[in-house]
Amino acid sequence: MKAFVLALCAAVVITVGANLILNEIGFSAQDTTSSPSVRLDSDS
Description:
This protein is mainly alpha-helical and 44 residues long. It is rod-shaped and about 50 Å long. It has 2 helices and no strands.
């Protein structure tokens, strides 16, 4: 059971870390798939 909880915690840390890193370097889906003619909210 301890190994399963540790794996869940690791998955959460990896997911959150990857999201933060990819957003910082400009590699989000919003940045890579939108063109200048698409209106996207700047709050997203």
